[in-house]
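User: Write out your own:

AI:
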Amino acid sequence: MTALQLPPTELPDPHPPSGRKRDLYYDPAVFKELDEDVFKVCLFIFIFLQKQMRDLIRLEFAPIFSQFGFVGTS
């Protein structure tokens, strides 16, 4: 069993890349599937947080909503 090495405490100075992007890939379309997955995850997280916020507001303000007779707060 090998132990994980900690990252160095001092990082090297920044330097320009040793190669060009076109040496790594010729067509940015190779990232299309990855981009679509990233967008799906972001949309899922956004919708989840939006629902959580809506539920929290409904829960916290339910007494006020019921006091003034607002409909659809359950």
